Amino acid sequence: MKKIKLSFGILLLLMVTISCAIEDGIDEDLTFLNSAVSNNVDAFFEISNDNSGNVKITPTGQGVTSFEINYGHGTADEAFDVVYPGSSTTHAYPEGNYSVSVIASDIAGNKTTTEYPLNVTYRAPENLTMNTTVNVFNVKVSASALYAQSFLVYFGDVENEVGTPLAIGATTPDHTYASGGAYTIKVVALSGGAATSEVTKTIIIFDPLALPYTCELASQNYLAGGTFGGVNYSIVDNPFSTGLNTSSKVVKFEKPIGAAEWAGTWKPLDVPIDLSTGTKIRMLVYATEVGKNVGLELQASTNGAPNTVIFVATTVADQWEELIFDTTTNPNIPSGATYKQFNINYNRPNAGEGEIIYIDNIRVTN
User: Fold this and answer.
1) Which single residue of 91, 193, 291, 354 has CA 20 to 30 Å from 110?
2) CA 292, 310, 241, 224 torsion-angle sign
3) Do 151 and 89 share a structural domain?
4) 214 in a domain, yes or no?
């Protein structure tokens, strides 16, 4: 009888020991995992509108432990990313249509794949501006625009022109025109996709300023230089197209009341006056008074000749006449002198009295 009681006691102790080795609430039954699948999987796309192509992808779902995002673009590690619930991933796309795969994994290792279409469209660049810098026959171009990836520049001087690439914040190298004239420059702003914007600007390229000075050529900058002492200087239609001068354009030279006695205009020349090719400078003048001096001052010699002025008086009124400035009569002008600038004044040494004269066709002859 004692042996039976002892055996029963040992059995009871063993049962207590085993029951204490298993924590409360946990057992080995994992069948619930078979029903722990992910569901309600979705993906939200935030597509940037700044032409960067950046798309933020945020996957969602119930019962999901991780998401693998296959972008539908790129290679190797750049073609996918793994994110966890509550997180996002961002990828830069060129403009186009894509299929994005979202693979949701649950706690049991089950995977659910969902495909989502994605369309990335770039916007046309906005607020496009063009800047040009002209230096004789050379021009440089820069441009700026919102949402532009780059630019193409067309200088407008050749048939079937291929655009010159221009990066953001850059300036083109010098473009050299073969001759003077009006040219229309076009800048096309590229979005990185199909959308573009463009702007045009017409510039004037002037041939080098030189004698003869006729006021007739669109390729000559007859207004180069400026005035001093209060005179006005402009290119106008010929108001007296008769006699010696029937050209369409002439200079209007005004010396208002009170203008300085030495007032005049100055003209810088790209091609110097070369007195070795001729010693007389001829000028057509229309004045309303006889005996008033027209002054022609020669400056900026390229071979050391001094600045000097020659005065010639008008001899007729209210009609065109040709005044001849003979440089051989002025001992200050050496033979073969060259000058890169001429100045014109009127009625020195008197202050302005409201005079108006017209000038045209300044040239060097023998």
Assistant:
1) 91
2) negative
3) no
4) no
pLDDT of residue 317: 97
Among 185, 238, 233, smallest CA distance to 216 is for 238
- In the structure encoding, which two tokens stand for residue 165, read together? 């690439």
Instruction: Give yes or no: residues 349 and 237 share one domain.
Output: yes
Residue that terminates a domain, selected from 56, 87, 120: 120
Phi, psi of 226 (to 5 degrees): 175, -160
For residue 10, report the phi and psi dihedrals to the nearest 5 degrees. Answer: -65, -40
Tell me the CATH number at 231.
Answer: 2.60.120.260
- 73 touches 1 (CB < 8 A): no
- pTM (global) more than 0.70: no
Using the 8-state DSSP alphabet, how is residue 347 labeled? S
Please give the residue range of the domain that contains residue 87.
Answer: 39-120
Q: Transcribe 195-240 into DSSP letters.
A: -EEEEEEEEEEPPPP-SSB-S--TTS-TT-SEEETT-EEEEEE-TT
User: By C-alpha distance, which of 101, 33, 105 is closest to 62?
Assistant: 105
Dihedral sign for Cα atoms in the order 62, 63, 67, 72: negative
Q: In this structure, is residue 219 part of a structural domain? A: no
Same domain, 70 and 116: yes
Cα dist. 121→51, 53, 117 in Å?
A: 8, 8, 13
Query: CA 158 from chain center: how many Å?
Result: 20
Q: Got the DSSP string for 21-66? A: TS-TT--S--GGGGG---EEEEEEEEE-SSSS-EEEEEEEEES-SE
